[in-house]
Amino acid sequence: MKCKSVACIWSASPPVHRVTASAVLDHPPTLYTGGSDGSIIWWNLISSHEKQEIKPIAMLCGHAAPIADLRICFPAAGAGNGKSNNPSNVLSNSNSVGALISACTDGVLCIWSRAMGHCKRRRKLPPWVGSPSMLQPLPENGRYVCIACCFGDYDHLSLDPVEEAATLVDKESQQGKPSKYTVVIVDSYTLTIVQTIFHGNLSIGPLKSLAIIVSNGEMEKWSVMIIDSFGKVQYLPILKNFDSKGETLSGTPEDSAHLEVMDCADGSKEKGLLVTFAKCGQVIALVYRTYCAFRLVDDHTILGKISFLDDQLCLGGKSHVVGGMFLGDDEATMRFKTGKSNYDFMEEFAVWNDRGSAVIYRISYSCNMLMFERLAAIPATLYPPDLRLSIFFIPLKKFLLRIESICFSSEEPSLWKPHVTVWLLPQHHVDNGKLCLECEKLGEGNFFDVWAMSSTSCEIKGPNLNVGKREISVHDEMTSLQSCSISSIDANMACTSNWRYGTYQEGKPVSSSMVISDNYLAPCAIVYGFFNGDIEVVRFNMFFMRLDSHGEGPHQEADACAPKQYLLGHTGAVLCLASHPMMSRSGGCILNHVLLSGSKDCTVRIWDLDTCNPITVLHQHVAPVRQIILPPHRTARPWSDCFLTVGDDSSVALASLETLRVERMFPGHPSYPAKVMWDGVRGYVACFCPNSLEASDALDVLYIWDVKTGARERVLRGAAAHSMFDHFSMVININDPSGIVMNVNTSASSLNFPITEETKFSKSYSKYSGNASSSQNISPVTTRTNEPSTSAASYASKGTAAKSGPPMLSVFQSAKHLIKSSCPFPGIATLSFDLTALMSLCSKPELFNGGIEEKTYVKQAGTDAPKDDAHTGDSSPLKELGSEMHSTYQVSPRSNSVLDWTSVATIEHHEWVRMFEGCLLQFSLSLLHLWNVDHELDNLLVTEMKLKRPDSFIVASGLLGDRGSLTLTFPGSNSTLELWKSSPVYSAMRSLTMVSLAQHLISLSHSCSSASSALAAFYTRKFAEKIPDIKPPLLQVLVSFWQDEFEHVKMAARSLFHCAASRAIPLPLCSPKVNEHTNFRQ
């Protein structure tokens, strides 16, 4: 089992979030909102002093496409055959096993555990299913979820319901063909398809909504009711006996011919497109812009209508209804109908308009008569009429939550912020016709206030913070590209800007971001690109000042504390970033780092990352540049110094950092290539273009290009396109020893890449890598291993003599990075610390015993680099320390002689290695420690252990989930403590990491023994004493490390287990005597 701890570094501005779906969990009261960018926000409803507070806790990162729907499911409920032994028990006990299932438009499904705080399952649906659009758990067993999928473009998710329906109708009428849909049943425990209900063209129009129907009096007969934008309904039967191999089954045209189709549209003059659909028991509600019609499920008999023209929802024709729903439980209503009551049906129903105004009705049906009464109203929002606004409502216990999404920039339509308000539902009956007073507003929440509090402890510096265009005059394109050092006075004045109609915040909205790590063991900088075209570089030099002072003079320490650097030049939003080493033209042995940036202004700019000076501007695209792809591992020259760019003009370009020109153009794609893979070993580029049409015969397309010739080699469509693209991903996984696919040193989100097992190709790597290294005409040493470290880069830029500096950090290049970095969303940087890798950094005795084995390299014909033995190419990089440590200083690339490295290791180098390991451990502890909980401990860590408080960064915590998913807490100790209180897995992982690293640090420096012991004692027992309601560590996790190969990890796991065992025992198993004994000891 792997123990990985995650630190999250947020930018100075909150992330954007436009809500496209929502779901609630009753116990504990939790709200989930899914956004158009794929992010999911976890909110907690907190009661305090008769007031309700809704606070954001964490961001759930598992999707890279708009969230189509969110639902609550129960993965542990029911039996494997799809039937529950006792349905009533499933419903009554569902709150204890409830989980969130999320689906996005690219087919990825995630199961998020509220009890554990992370993603339990992350899978992708097969391509033939299409893109999910709606989810609906089955009524009697919430373990199984019905998913409706369709094919085509999903830009309509950003529209309101009326605009969405009109868009879908227009597209279908223009195409003249019915849309293609798929309806499947998925097991939420495994996320596998257990039944295919339908696959083909529906007999009705564009899909609007679906519901699971249980026939009246026949609980064993289920069907899926699908309704289109015109009110037409189609029924699809469900087989109760689920087949585990159901994904091989699909509906046929013959099956579709016998499906029941009914028309629920009435002959009203106000007839129009359906806004929304709601179901409660055997009653359905069809909501239109100005009225709502109620019908029975069985025969679609019209029960009655409610007109909104005389209500505040449609006053003056300036607003219209956009949503409606029943506030009660669907299953509870079915049971209520069988009880003793004078009504056949009675339920509360809420309707709202596009400005946030809502009316709550009580609907009752008895003696063939529909009656309704207005119970309460919620006032509209106070935003200006011209402000773009999106509104959702969702009930949570006795409250009604209004979820607002506000577009706060007219120039950037993608900038949205959420705002949630809590309203008390009416608790008493009111006579018919009388309108109650307004619902009481109990509380509100947004995560902009979190940044206002968190940013006060961080020094935010930067130039103009306005979202719009900056007022600059560009006389000459190259001369206007200048790095900028902003004074603290100007920066502080700039930080006083507010976002329109928003709470106070500091910083600028981020459009792209990346973490620069290259082949180092630790990240060296974070780069932010902003919507106004600015670029900010924030370095981690402060954590490695000891290394700088060890190899250089006092001036290096001053450079480590230099202010943030800004690159100005783009006139549009910076959409993509990348960092790449480039061989210097002067000496041929010093690598300069360049920063690549693509923008909405259609340009690609190249910067010198060491000096922050501009190099050149490229104009290969006529539309915004969305992606920059770097050459993968083992790419031969000259292609190793090239990069790919992808633009909205549906073209891909290859540019060279040696010639600073565009060398290849790959045009002619039918749509924007959303996914691009570069196979550097074989020299091919795969461009995957998703289907952007909703026609039934439209297919996804894959273009394969030859990099050397620039010719198009092959075009694949449909299933063949997906299969070949997966093959490209597999090959790149094999070639890359770091195990990271194409997203290192780029702003590309790790969530965008294929979902694969982490160890899927690990066994085959050593064999494949040995063959690959022998078949190449170039050794990676000449292009990859001479990269300077964080401090070494500054040595190279200052022209310092090689012999006075420390050895290059490239000697530690290993099969996997010790600290993996990624940016799942713009402005969010994550650092994943692998405990095993950190503990084994310098565990090789040959590094310090002077026993570095002699290695002989034979120069390969036709290359300038020595060739390693194929049998030793898989060995530990630390064993090759002597062979690589001084390659930059002592080896001429033109030398043809056999090299002997036996005299490389020296005492000075050993001291530097130990010092670097100490700095790396201090860096890890500084970012992972929970500051401001025990102030005495914090002071001890700073003064004795020499930890650096990350005050220059907004640091939070996180938890890894299945297949690259992440749970990232928002800034502030309250959010991090909530993760401690809710997730025993997080508690175990973080405690084990902190105690192990603290004990390991004592072995490196005995001067910090007291601080290390205090840190270990804090996470072992004192933390639980200070905050008693935190979850005890999960004992199963600790037991798995009892026999760990590292003594410090083994002892830390056993100590934590013995301290947590008493707290982890469930209360029903604790006898009163045991509790008394525990209290006596405390």
| Strand order within the widest beta sheet | 2-3-4-5-53-52-1-48-47
The end-to-end span amounts to 33 Å
Number of helices: 22
What structural category do the secondary elements indicate?
A: alpha+beta
Radius of gyration: 31 Å
* Low-confidence runs: 79-95, 244-258, 332-342, 459-506, 551-562, 758-815, 844-905, 1074-1082
Percent helix range? 10-25%
| Share of residues in strands | 25-35%
Shape: globular
Give the beta-strand count: 53
Q: What is the makeup of the main sheet? A: 9 strands, antiparallel
Mean pLDDT: 74
Structure description:
The chain is built from 22 helices and 53 strands. The strands form twelve sheets. It has a nine-stranded antiparallel sheet with strand order 2-3-4-5-53-52-1-48-47. Strands 30-34-33-32-31 form a five-stranded antiparallel sheet, with no helix packed on it. The chain is globular.
